[in-house]
């Protein structure tokens, strides 16, 4: 059985270290709000991602959930927990959540309660508009310690189309 999950296998150099400001492109990250639901591509098991979070690096609040329907060759179950970091730059956001619930049938046992996950969301506008591109989302493998709060290469939302709608707003 082959299990695919949306994970970019890129080294996250600096995990646990202070995140330098400003961002690489010279812009300052801002606190924000990220709300929405989307189903990611079937090639990754069609996980349903739901986020409702607001705040910044030190005052984030909200929740996330990722639910796998159990398509052939993919896990079945649910991951969820509180969001403890929101990092927004224009229409792109990165959230860090901590797994409270990790009830998932995953033979590789990649998801454990208490560990951290990074979620990336790219809001490409109103999905019902003519010619609109779907929003994009991604999430990382889990980390035993909390990663830096910022743009994280393990969850860049550039590859996985999300059927649904996410809203990313700077505060």
Labels describing this entry:
171 residues; mainly beta; 9-stranded antiparallel beta sheet; globular; disordered N terminus
Shape: globular
Query: Helix fraction?
Result: under 10%
Low-confidence stretches: 1-26
Structural class category:
mainly beta
Major pleated sheet? 9 strands, antiparallel
Number of E-state strands: 9
For the terminal residues, how far apart are their CA atoms? 44 Å
Count of helical stretches? 0
| Rg of Cα set | 15 Å
Question: What is the residue-mean pLDDT, rounded to a whole number?
Answer: 82
Q: In sequence order, what are the helices and strands, one letter per element?
A: EEEEEEEEE
Describe this structure in words.
With 171 residues, the protein is mainly beta. The chain has no helices and nine strands. Strands 1, 2, 3, 4, 5, 6, 7, 8 and 9 form a nine-stranded antiparallel sheet that branches. Strand 3 and strand 4 (76-89) form a beta hairpin. The protein is globular and about 40 Å long. Mean pLDDT is 82; it is low at 1-26.
